[in-house]
Amino acid sequence: MNCEFSHTLLHGYLDGELDAAGAVNFESHLESCPQCSEILAREQSLQESLQRSQLYERAPASLHRRVRSKLPAMTPASVARSKAWFWPAFAAASLLVALLGWQSLSLQSRHSQQAAFASAVIDAHLRSLQPGHLVDVESTDQHTVKPWFDGKLDFAPPVRDFAAEGFRLTGGRIDVVSGKTVAALVYGRRKHFVNVFVWKADDAKPLAGSGTEQGYRWLAWRSADLYFCAVSDTAPADLEQLRRLL
Q1: CA distance 64 to 61
Q2: CB 196 within 8 A of CB 229
């Protein structure tokens, strides 16, 4: 199993770079992800070992003197030239540092937003598994389920039955995920249910990739002007097959 969080948030959490919400979300993820817990424990152990080893050594004064003796003497003209280029160089360096810092914060923010949205998708899936919450319209007929969404959304979700491929259409419902009104297409896969959340593409950064949380897997992608996210406790290969079918 390859958890997406081990590549995105783990090192930011280890180095104290996540904001409060991101850290809380990742700590909640650790409770149900043995892979991330194991990797984090190894990284923390390595970090502590390096700190205990005290590998840092201060250069002796004699080395400072030898290095300084090799440097050319500063003449008044060279001092003037140094002052002439110092401030432009300082301004350029400051701009570069600011740009890199902005990019780092932007990436961290996107990771935090994706972690929060992934949690919301999992929560919506868990709510649907409660008695009476799975579907608003129950039918294996795509020609019954698809018209049911008419007038309830500002887009038309692609409703299809894939019973021949092992994904039986169970029905659909309207759901709300992280403040977004979405269509939820429900499929049966052996003894598992798969929720496929569909919403209209906008300017916000979408959930992308895949991950595991609370023992459930999610797989997100974009197709044309729609975003999709499939959630279930079935095998990752099943979610990938359903993505290709859709």
Answers
A1: 5
A2: yes
* Per-residue pLDDT, 90: 65
**Token pair of 44 as six digits:** 């923390």
**pTM (whole model) above 0.85:** no
What pLDDT score does 115 carry?
74
* 8: exposed, middle or buried (Cβ count in 10 Å: 0-12, 13-18, 19+): buried
| Contact call for residues 211 and 4 (beta carbons, < 8 A) | yes
Rounded-to-integer distance, Cα 138 and Cα 128, Å: 13
Q: What is the pLDDT of residue 172?
A: 95
- What pLDDT, on a 0 to 100 scale, did the predictor assign at position 1? 43
Task: Give mean pLDDT in consecutive 10-residue pieces for the chain, a chain of 246 residues.
Answer: 69 79 82 85 78 68 80 62 63 66 49 72 90 92 94 92 94 89 93 93 69 87 89 91 92
Phi-psi bin for 166: left (phi > 0), alpha (psi -120 to 50), beta? left
> Helices 34-53 and 20-30 sit at what angle, rounded to 10 degrees?
110
Kindly list the structural domains of the chain, giving each domain's residue range(s) and its CATH number in brackets, ordered by start: 5-52 (no CATH), 134-245 (3.30.200)
Sorted by sequence, the CB contacts under 8 Å of residue 120 that are 6+ apart come out as 177, 178
Q: Of 6, 19, 11, which is closest to residue 213 (Cα–Cα)?
A: 6
Residue with tokens 């935090």: 112
CB neighbourhood size of 182 (10 A): 24
- Measured N-to-C along each axis, helices 20-30 and 76-128 cross at an angle, to the nearest 10 degrees, of 50
Which helix (H) or strand (E) segment is 228 a member of?
Answer: strand 226-232
